[in-house]
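Table S2 (text version). Query chain:
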Amino acid sequence: MIVAVAAYVVSARKPDAPWARSFAFFLRLGVIVIVVRVVIQVAFGAALGTTVLLPLPGIALPTWLAGVRLGGDVMLESVLMAFYDGLRLATILVCIGAANSLASPSRLLKSVPAALYEVGVSVVVALTFTPQLVTDVARVQSARHLRGRATRGPRAIAGAAMPVFEGALERSVTLAASMDSRGYGRRGGVSRAQRRLAAALLLIGLVAACIGSYGLVAAGSPPLMDAPMLAFGVLASIVAVTWSAKGAVRTRYRPDPWWAPEWLVAGSGIAAALLFFGARWLAPLGLETPYDPPSWPTLPLLPMLGVIIAMTPAFTAPSLPSTGSRWQGDRATSPGRAVNA
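Corresponding structure-token output:
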């Protein structure tokens, strides 16, 4: 359901931009992850359960390789366990692909808090790497197709590698020049000791938040290691970000508006996360998919409501202007053209 909702939101709100073409790549990557996980379990994993899907010969291994096998009978429980594990990772990849397809890198960077601007640049560059790579590969393949050259096979990959790397290097140089021209890295009137203290507080807050998040989903964790630790981590991170923002000198050109559609999108994400956390807290076994013995997965109420709420940005999110309309608007307001008041 999560993959279907992510695909629906992307299809409804995908902008007309180069980074919006990477969602299909993440879908294919998720399918590959599932297939590889199942194949590894069938070929090398220990047999689970008693339901035999396909009897195959196996190779006996020594006792010090317990838990590993080569071949053997294919069990239904083992295949289901591997499928569910691969599906979890594929769902994470699809959600990351949806974020890559919907988020504008420049608008995302402008929304990062001032204290996290350096980290935000690294995160934005990492998030936009795959979409830019997909765009460059498609561009090089189109050029090779127009020239009558091969677009598939080892020769096509070898011929497309150098132009793709050259484009990545040119973008890196352009990004470095634009950051330098905008005075990237300026600092305000904050001492070095205060910056180090804020960075240490932020690190402690993030570590505490990670420990608290793990305590919420882990069974048998101490009472102070779940919700209280998470609350302490979030509070420490907010204090560190607020304190560090005083020493970051940043200006914004045409800041993005934050109106009702933006609040609805942010609220839907927060509500979906809270519903999943609540379901994990109240009924942790309801989120587990049984595979031994095999049975149909259940559909808990709270996660289902969270998935439905996560689909609302397909209707409430503000529509992004297309590249063509923005180009026409720039032409209409360019020098030498009359603009009616």
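Notes on Table S2: The radius of gyration is 25 Å. Residues 187 and 314 are 40 Å apart (CA to CA).
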